[in-house]
Amino acid sequence: MDDRLFKELKHIPILCVEDEDGIRENIVQTLEYYFDEVFEAQDGNEAFELYEYYKPKIVLTDIQMKNCDGVELIRKIRQIDKDITIFVLTAYSTEEYLLDLINLNINHFIIKPLNLKKLNEALLKYLDKDLKPIELCKGLVLDIEKREVIYNSNEIISLRKREKDFLQLLVKRKNSIVTYDQIEQELWLEKEMTTHALKSFIKDLRSKLPINIIKNIPQEGYTLIKEGC
Asked: Where does the OmpR/PhoB-type domain start and stop, copy by copy (predicted)?
């Protein structure tokens, strides 16, 4: 089993949605082997409330459920969150849903019954999905896997995990502002984020980068500078 599943998933919150109590309990027990935070819901309505409150990074959901099915849940989530990873538990009898699910940008389909092999494949896919190098600016590339920034193909700048995660967050929200609340929820998982801590973090990261690509939006947050790079 890939050691990354234990090292990199530990602090990632996940939401499990399944209407059959026994199946859901078994899945949750398995997920708790990898994740510290596992939230569970018995239908789409409860799941959406939990999603709005806890903002999990991954949603693992069944399709056929009472009250609010998986497709409706995913549609509601995708209206406000294009980036969250969504795994769908499905049976061959649910093929009529597949076109809708593909259009909703599902990250991975898991055919029931769920077992460790299928779950591991999905989780490894989650870990690998953002490993491609990202161009932050002309001549400035973020290597996710090595946790480095490469400048003009030859200067290598090492990053701490939080610095790498912050740059990724700026890229994901490149057409909008990354708010202070989003930064705290995404990056300050273990403690409260103070204004001083955030300012010191941004100052240190800017000092590492050869080009200033981080723009502060007063009283709102930060955004990625692309123009003029």
From this structure: 132-226
